[in-house]
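Hi all, a correction to my earlier message: I attached the wrong file for 1-aminocyclopropane-1-carboxylate oxidase1. Here's the right sequence:
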Amino acid sequence: MEAMTGAMESAASKLDRARELRAFDDTKAGVKGLVDAGVVNVPQIFVLPHDNTKNVTGGTAKVNFTVPVIDLQGVENDSTLHQEIVDRIRHASETWGFFQVVNHGIPVGVLEEMLRGVRRFNEQDVEVKKQFYTRDVTRKFVFNSNFDLYSAPAANWRDTFFCFMAPTPPQPQELPTSCRDIIIEYSKQVTKLGRFLFELLSEALNLNPNHLNDIGCADGLGLLYHYYPPCPEPQLTLGASTHTDIDFLTVLLQDHIGGLQVLYDNQWVDIPPVPGALVVNIGDLLQLISNDRFISAEHGVLANNVRSRVSVACFFRGDMGKSDELYGPIQELFSEDNPPKYRATTVKEYVSYYNTKGLDGTSALLHFRA
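and the right structure:
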């Protein structure tokens, strides 16, 4: 009898949650809509499960570790300096999976305008934003809150808009006027940087500098623009749950607010904003093709009750349209002591599995182990 009662209560709880999720989604106003409405308590759909401790970041700075900051100034003109930078990138990619770059070639004015563009879109009249709100990811421009809203253990305290800028970018008129020009310009600039970073990463793997670009790692570019409104109870939820990235490489622009953390040596370490810097991190697909030489590290974002935070994540993940293009561990990296650790997969298969699984605190890479 008790078991039956418990099962009924569980079913009712799931039904209530489903209704809450649908009601939230139907507003098409996102988390900012809740804040604008004056919410003083975090709705239950955002509250982290008590037993989901893997998904809770530390919340305080770990001063004994510092994410590497790599200065690219002069990397193309001085062979000795070039090798030093490649060595630093190799070490950071093998140990942290994260590093920051400065003097990367993208003007500070472009970075600042990109952040302003994210704010303009998210802080404009909600009725204008609603025109873009959708869960149809085939649309050229998508605005919603939580891509895994209906499958994640808890929703994240953030709204997102995204678009794919390569290999087939949207027409300018398909982008919102609030940020259209800067999206186009920033995409051009970050594409150039991404291709250069893949050259340095190829060298760090002792491969031909063109290797990663030649196999298409930079052919697809997706931009995710995150807006994290201030949270009335930041201790109950997260801006972004613990996860690894789905791509070959991510280039992240964050504002001055902070909150990004990476798991290093079993400790959560802050990645503090550095003026003019971009955060670079290894994605799952690069860990897969490097046969675990480079690591795709777990990371997340804390919620805060001070003010809104914005960031722009640029995902280099190949051309998803090439459904038969297989990516497996690079043969040049094999040895008797280092056999292939993963089966080959397509970008489309990997992305589909990752999105279906959602941000549940486990790595999608486990599913592709050989």
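Sorry for the mix-up. The domain at 46-368 is CATH 2.60.120.330 (Jelly Rolls).
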